[in-house]
Amino acid sequence: MMKTNFTLLVTLFASLLAAQSPTTQIQFEIEGYEEDFMAIANNLLDNQYIVDTVWRDDNGVFIYEREEAMSPGIYLAVMAPQNDYFQFLVTEEEQQFSIKNSVADQVKGAQIEGSQENEHFFSYLGYLQEAGERNQAMRAQLESEDLSMADKTRLERELTELDEQVKAHQEDWLVTAPNSFVTAIIKANKNVEPPSFEEISDTDARRSAQLRYLQEHYLDNLDLQDPRLLRTPFLFQRINFFVERLHVQAPDSISVAIDRVLGRMDTESETFKYYLIHYLNKAANSEFVGMDAIYVHLIDNYYAKGLAPWTEEEQLASFLDNANRLRPLLIGEIAPDIQMQTREGNSISLHEIDSEYTVLYFWRYDCGHCKESTPFMKEFYDKWQERGVTLFAVCAKNADDVGECWEYVDEKEIGDWLHTVDPYLRSRYAVKYDLQTTPQIYVLDANKEIVSKRISAEQLDELMELITAEEEEGR
User: Fold this and answer.
1) Per-residue confidence of the chain (475 residues) as pLDDT tens digits?
2) Is 248 helix (H, G, I), strand (E, B) or coil?
3) Interatomic CA distance for residues 452 and 206, integer angstroms
4) Residue 149 CB neighbours (<10 A)
């Protein structure tokens, strides 16, 4: 008679059950909610995304199940039809729990089972809700025209005390539950106050010192190594404020800010991946002049160094090629020299132009935007030719079409510009200047350094006024 290994059977059966049971199971029971479905959503960067839809079962309970674990973060239970929602937490450790509340009382009356983090979270939200209601009631009283001075003083004192109580409550979390997700949320939203720097008498110098302090310490309370913070509604706002409000919106300054943010992240984390991709896409699609320098910076310092392993080989090659094409054309670089030919057949190079400023203008006679730009360029030249500006125009056509370039010049009476073509070298200038569309405008200084580029003809006059004004101030 065959002997059965009972222990082995029990182990196999338990393993089978474990494989079949869901890793994530969250139950929602919402009193007063009549719809048959609800959505689960989360926050990622500056957007909210629907994760899944959950349907009511025969017992009136919404059960969200999935075999794979949910990524940690703050999630939303979204109710139809008005998209009202309440928030709840998901952590790596707590993926099976239940929330019972009501449409009328989503937070303070909520009952949580199986998740200490959500018990903490709903308790904290309930406290903030009560404090907010008290704050609102007192501020409403302060707006009363019949309020006595004594009552006004009392209410203002009570508002200050309430604010201090909320701060003290938050500080208690930092001490009593330092590793809680709620604590991480509180800390991440804690403002950094710069010193007064009273020892600095000059107002502008004092403000500069405070700004430098904020730049150095604003991220101190944001643990960018914490994967729970990625899917929260505040992380992007905090990081975006740091990059866009605490730093001058110039390529070099923005690149420094992004490096500070990414430098605080684990390079193998989702957070690092999402934010690196975000800033690369933003730089690539920016309409502001000069932001391609950020694109090149990110490619050179992250993608080219193997810090974006999720990038497919073909896409990475494209990124590197784009950066190589853009790098010589960044603001501050010496514009690539090009050897062109005038109408009379004389050879002339861009770098031999002796002028305080040179406007390099690529155009085509059959380009609609170029035709619209012509009167603006003509007006600009009439104004600036006596002010040290040379207009170096390149008709972006090959040898067979050069004749029509000159016909257009005659027709529009713009022959007093320096017009050039390239009938022999087959558009090498187009490669050097990554010329994919026309018109294209570059403003160069006396050393042929790129001062500005890829602006419209309508903006050119205003830009030159700013450039010359800044130059005069610097003298």
Assistant:
1) 344 454 544 444 444 444 455 789 999 999 999 999 999 999 999 999 999 999 999 999 999 999 999 999 999 999 999 999 999 999 999 999 999 999 999 998 899 999 999 999 999 999 999 999 999 999 999 988 888 899 999 999 999 999 999 999 999 999 999 999 999 999 999 989 999 999 999 999 999 999 999 999 999 999 999 999 999 999 999 999 999 999 999 999 999 999 999 999 999 999 999 999 999 999 999 988 899 999 999 999 999 999 999 999 999 999 999 999 999 999 999 999 999 999 999 999 999 999 999 999 999 999 999 999 999 999 999 999 999 899 999 999 887 788 999 999 999 999 999 999 987 656 789 999 999 999 999 999 999 999 999 899 999 999 999 998 887 776 5
2) coil
3) 32
4) 7
Strands 24-31 and 96-102: parallel
How, if at all, do strands 62-66 and 47-55 pair? unpaired
Residue 320 CB-density burial (10 A; 0-12 exposed, 13-18 middle, 19+ buried): middle
pTM above 0.90, yes or no: no
Contacts 24+ apart (CB under 8 A), 34-39: 35/79, 35/80, 35/81, 37/62, 37/80, 38/62, 38/77, 38/78, 38/79, 38/80, 39/76, 39/77, 39/78, 39/80
Helices (H), 264-367: 270-285, 292-298, 313-326
Read off the DSSP letter of residue 345. S
Report which DSSP code applies to 60: S
Phi, psi of 391 (to 5 degrees): -100, 105
> Which single residue is written with the structure tokens 């959505």?
39
AA letter at 54? V
